[in-house]
Design goal:
About 35% of the residues lie in helices and about 25% in strands. With about 400 residues, the chain is α+β, with helices and mostly antiparallel strands. It has two domains: about 1-100, Beta Barrel (OB fold (Dihydrolipoamide Acetyltransferase, E2P)); about 195-410, Chloramphenicol Acetyltransferase. The strands form five sheets. Strands 9, 12, 15, 16, 17, 18 and 19 form a seven-stranded mixed β-sheet that branches. Strands 1-8-6-3 form a four-stranded antiparallel β-sheet. The protein has a four-stranded antiparallel β-sheet with strand order 5-4-2-7, covered by helices on one side. Strand 4 and strand 5 form a beta hairpin. The longest helix has 18 residues, at about 220-235.
């Protein structure tokens, strides 16, 4: 009996996706709940599982096609015996071996048999022809990340070089050899297209303005140095800088509600909670998973949430639910070495806090010039909703809380 495979629900307000990759080809054996395709949505890659065990009969969409929720994308024939499907698989592998593609066939079989690899990792394994069983994963729980695959591919493609022979002298009058000038055209992923549209839309619709300040990080660095070992021992997580800024932002957003609000039509929507979107770098672009109720969480839980988001972003396992909502965003360009920037808001939010690198600079303290670890911070905001006084006040509250972390404990 044939069963049609349809595009599953993709999350709130998401009605379509793009076929990013077929994980199974016509004639392949498929186990129940085994992914057969990877769909790229506006925010994440989503696996489409098979509801039954059988053999994939046909694709009804091609890679790159846009498909709506509920659309039929494949057909599977149920009831195929294991022996028959194993024979077909062996036949296909033999054909590939005759064509000199033993390594890629092995990788393809390994990927098909392993359901723990994310779509991004599977794609990298197949593209580079590496054996995932030989890779030591550095992700959470030993999972393989895309970076692990790329490192394995680099080692495979760059063996130890043999001693180079002495070059022969060039003929008199010969022109020196020059390197090639190549170009490569790669279609933008759906996620990258969406990021481009949203950021450009934010610039065109919002009245964007950025205010700056600088922060003396001495107190936070001292606190981390003093308590990092105890913190890690008790909570099994490192004490980072982001937890301090998240809690400082919560103080500011409570005192200046407009910075935690957004415009919807002709109304302003205020929130009595703080859901902080944290910008995280993923293989396909920047994603912003949300720390729910950050104002009610302690440092340890915030740090655990951030670490989990970072790990799952690298593995490609973040879900639509992880990135839905958010009332305010924190983006840390300092991890890449940025000194100063003007971040763009994440619609429909009205403000974003930009963090930057810490560096020793001379500053005046009590009439004396001293060297302190300083960081520039920036608050970009929608001037249609947030006045300059409110934006400056909010950023000043964050600065004061970071320079005197006790304020975060006694809610000042």
């Amino acid at each position: 009996m044939s069963t049609e495979i349809t595009v599953p629900a993709l999350g709130e307000s998401v009605t379509e996706g793009t076929i990013g990759e077929w994980l199974k080809q016509p004639g392949d054996a498929v186990a129940a709940d085994e992914p057969i395709a990877s769909l790229e949505t506006d925010k994440v890659a989503v696996d489409v599982p098979s509801p039954i065990a059988g053999v994939l009969q046909e694709h009804r969409a091609e890679v790159g096609d846009t498909v709506e929720v509920g659309a039929v994308i494949a057909v599977i024939e149920a009831g195929a015996t294991g022996a028959a499907t194993n024979g077909e698989e062996a036949g296909r592998k033999a054909e590939k071996a005759e064509e000199g593609k033993e390594t890629r066939a092995k990788s393809d079989a390994d990927v098909s048999a392993s359901q723990t690899l994310s779509p991004a990792v599977r794609r990298a394994v197949l593209e580079h022809g590496v054996d995932p069983s030989t890779i030591n994963g550095t992700g959470k729980g030993g999972r393989i990340t895309k970076e692990d695959v790329l490192e394995a591919a680099k080692k495979k493609d760059d063996p130890a070089p043999a001693p180079a022979p002495s070059p022969s002298p060039a003929p008199a009058g010969a022109a020196p050899a020059t390197g090639g000038r190549n170009e490569e055209r790669v279609k933008m992923t759906r996620m990258r297209q969406t990021i481009a549209k949203r950021l450009k839309g934010a610039q065109e619709e919002a009245a964007l303005l950025t205010t700056f300040n600088d922060v003396d990080m001495s107190a936070v660095i001292e606190a981390r140095t003093k308590y990092k070992d105890l913190f890690a021992k008790k909570h099994d997580i490192k004490l980072g800088f982001m937890g301090f800024f998240a809690k400082a932002a919560c103080l500011a957003l409570k005192d200046v509600p407009a910075v935690n609000a957004y415009i919807e039509g002709e109304e302003i929507v205020y929130h009595d909670y703080v859901d902080i979107s944290v910008a995280v770098s993923a293989p396909n672009g920047l994603v912003v998973p949300v720390i729910r109720d950050a104002d009610k969480k302690g440092f340890a839980q915030i740090e655990k949430d951030i670490a989990d988001f970072g790990s799952r972003a690298r593995e490609g396992t973040l879900t639509m639910a992880d990135m839905t909502g958010g009332t305010f965003t924190i983006s840390n360009g300092g991890v890449f070495g940025s000194l100063m920037s003007t971040p763009i808001i994440n619609p429909p939010q009205s403000a974003v806090l930009g963090l930057h690198r810490i560096e020793d600079r001379p500053v005046a303290v009590n009439g004396e010039v001293v060297i302190r670890p300083m960081m520039y911070i920036a608050l970009s905001y929608d001037h249609r909703l947030i006045d300059g006084r409110e934006a400056v006040t909010a950023l000043k509250i964050i600065k004061e809380a970071i320079e005197d972390p006790t304020r975060m404990l006694i809610d000042l």
